[in-house]
């Protein structure tokens, strides 16, 4: 070995660290301990154990020093990453010395051995639990001595609980293998000498630069771009609510890919050199550094909090990291929401930088099209002022382009008109000149015309809006939009940030207009075919959540914002008023359909009075459908579709023919007539018995298919048995469970308990008593995936329900082990709200319980109400991620509503106690 004493850290050469270098790794003192241990008369095994003991103590001290410094300066990621590298370097050098001087002293003719850091360790950036990737470099094939040294080193490093990735290669191996594998090539791109023979390390460096990293880099770029696309496909978009800090879109790997390519092509050693090379403008480099520092800080805190190499920002970790980074609650928003908005804005900035940089490189290395393909491909003629560069719209003359600020908008219009992408240089120009968009531009009729055409004219407005949003153009043109850019809604219901959700809703509307969802959304599609004010609908969707993130109700605040923004977008006064109404009440139809019994005439009557006209109903229906579908990929389902569709059709009929059509008697007569038609083989007398058995609410509250199921259950009634009909209701993505049994107190709560025990999620429940003393209960249930139960599972489901109803299982005891809240869900704050409504139904008091969802909740609430002699007619369950709204239609034991405030307070108190007790069980 050429450098036997090269085993200490040079403190004078140490990078900027977060703590005193001696607190991180005092190599002089540690190496003295190791030397003393080596002099002791002990076996190699004992020396190895003593080495591990000494280094483990040093490692613990170093980690604690770094963590303390990082806690005091939680955004100083550069100091954190270099500190962990410094600590690791110290341990690797010390282990190398022990292995080569004490455990396996080098023979006189020993070949040199060099230890090289590669990958992230080679780059000198390490999170607390990053891998340590080592290359053991040899001049020729591995010798027995070198093999012993490497083995000894690895065992000691593994005993120190370091996750070591390693390879043993010659310089020729490195060149050959890297030429065949871009992962190896990338790792070697960031190699760094750590210890051992320096001459061999220098030879590796020179050889790699000459033979591996001297070309154009075209193949390397294409490999990195393909790798990036594959990674994004696997991880999802950057706006997913539990992002992967390292691998996700807009994460650290994107920044690293950018630097790898720049390093390959330009040979730079530090990201700051990218400015001198013309890769970045100075302001873009500052954005790069800010994003890099922020993401590394987040990753560092994630590792420290979980004590392992965690990269996923799960909901529970988002709260912990926000706290570690000292974010505070602000203006009606939780600290975690402020933190996550910062995260998504940095992720967006990373996306901008990587797209601009990598797309430009892609342009530089793109193959020219074959001549015939260029001749016969038809392209739209580009407008004056633009040129086409590699099938992208570029600017002919930047100065002329910027002379008229309206051109910043026209660029997006031209991209939509031609269907071409915008060249990265043009995107940089837009981003660097957003200050040109001032009030004079915003109020310019031509600017209004361009923006409305982007929404209404080209058929894919979401493409323009997303690109405008990413470049900051959307917030520049509509400043009121800026607060919701990258704003996360800290819950499990919304899959996207507020701005992305808004764009998703508009994408859904465009798809409906193009008849792409006609089979899935027949009502919304027919509404658009009949014709609506498209301008009003698109602007309403664009602005419907613009009030989010403030202490006020976002619908009320959003409506107030509309009064300022809509006229500026060129809407007439009557259009402004309609958009204002739609934004103010954009949740009304969804709430009515999902939280109220739409079979109750009062529900439809109240909704019809609020909507007033079919024109508004049409607009609100389409907006509601697009809004729900824009929440997340799995939010819209057949259950919601049936509810929205039924509420729309009943309300449309009421508005067109008069509200008197909604009375119970008319609807009951129609339902009985429909049942007779559905049972043509039944004797007339049997039909008379069945139609006379039930009260009016039964006839209006259930579909004829349920009436038929109950009629057959009564026909085959067995007083000693539990009479159940389980039937998949495919139209609603649920299984309908019908029960008939003698009426007795608390039967509804017993049924909810039985269903909870079998793991069924109740989405709707109806309970009716008959004139001859029976109860008919209908539940719509789903499995854990939100689907109807498979037919093959129904017999076992029936068996388990029967077993529970027979009392063979004590429901409350059995549920104790089941109603647990998952760790990642405990971070959510879901305050409990309980309201009483005596106006929403002619017969019942409506109790709405808005609280955290958990298994067994419906049973706890129903059991509590039963214990207070409350009769539950039906229950409507609306779930929004971790939040649930359970709505009960109830009467007291005398058949009266709960008007008394004292009785309401008693009910609320007991319901809250049931919720609190259940939460305590779930958290244990």
Write up this protein:
The protein contains 41 helices and 15 strands. It is α+β, with helices and mostly antiparallel strands. The strands form three sheets. An eight-stranded antiparallel sheet has the order 8-9-11-10-14-15-13-12, sandwiched between helices. Strands 3-2-1-4 form a four-stranded mixed sheet, sandwiched between helices. A three-stranded mixed sheet has the order 5-6-7. α24 packs across α31.
N- and C-termini, Cα separation = 59 Å
For the biggest β-sheet, the strand order reads: 8-9-11-10-14-15-13-12
State the secondary-structure class: alpha+beta
- What value does the Rg take, in angstroms? 34 Å
Oligomeric nature of the chains: single chain
Which blocks of ≥5 consecutive residues have pLDDT under 50? 1-5, 367-376
Q: Mind describing the biggest β-sheet?
A: 8 strands, antiparallel
- Count of distinct structural domains: 4
Estimate percent helicity.
55-70%
The geometry reads as globular
How large is the share of residues in beta strands? 5-15%
SS summary, helix count: 41
Total number of strands: 15
Mean pLDDT: 88
